[in-house]
Structures are given as C-alpha cells and as structure tokens.
C-alpha cells in the first residue's frame, strides 16, 4: 500500500497526474511559440 492506496490505484492516479502535466506543458509551449495569451491562466499572478 502506498499512501493508503493499492499499488494499481496509485499507479493509475500517478499516470493521470502525469498526463495532465504533459498536456499543460504542451499547451504552454504552444502558446509561447504562437504568442497567444490565456488571461484566465494567470489570475493569481501579478501582472
């Protein structure tokens, strides 16, 4: 058991988090290359 979850549940959770991270990274790189700005993504950061 890892953090109270079975190994298969932990692996599935880990894969889902990794896919979210990869997709977010691809989106950010694409937006940086195309100079596109997503205002909703920077709500909590100072401008």
Q: Please, could you describe this protein's structure?
A:
The protein has 47 residues and is an all-alpha fold. It has a domain at 1-31. The chain is 57% helix and 0% strand. It is built from 1 helix and no strands. The protein is elongated, with a radius of gyration of 16 Å.
- Rounded to an integer in angstroms, the radius of gyration calculated over CA atoms is 16 Å
Largest sheet: none
Through-space gap between termini = 44 Å
**Estimated structural class:** mainly alpha
Secondary structure layout:
Layout: H1 7-33
Keywords:
47 residues, mainly alpha
Provide a quick synopsis of the model:
This protein has a domain of 31 residues. It is 57% helix and 0% strand.
